[in-house]
Amino acid sequence: MKVVLTIAGSDSSGGAGIQADLKTFEAFGVFGTSVITVLTAQNTTGVTEIQSVPIDFVRAQIKAVFEDFEVAAIKIGMLYSAEIIEVVKNFISGCDIPVVLDPVFMSKAGSPLLQEDTVDKMKELFTCATVITPNLFEAKELFGFSTQDECAITKIEQLNTPVLVKNQVIEKKGKKRSVDKLYTGNDKKIFETTHVNTTNLHGTGCSLSSAITANLALGKSLEQSIEVAKRFITQALIHAPKIGHGPGPINHKKGGEDVN
Question: Do 202 and 44 meet the contact criterion of CB atoms below 8 Å apart?
Answer without folding.
Answer: yes
